[in-house]
Amino acid sequence: MEPRRDHAGPGAIIFCRMNALFARLLRRDLDWYHRIRITPEHPLAWRRFWVAVTHLGGARMTIAACLVAIAIPRSRYAGIHAAVALLVAFLFSQFVKRTVGRPRPRAIERGHTVLEAPDRFSFPSGHSAASMAVAAMFALTFPSLGIWLLPIAVLVGYSRVALGVHYPLDVVAGQAIALLTAGLLRLW
Question: Is the pTM above the cut of 0.70?
Answer without folding.
Answer: yes
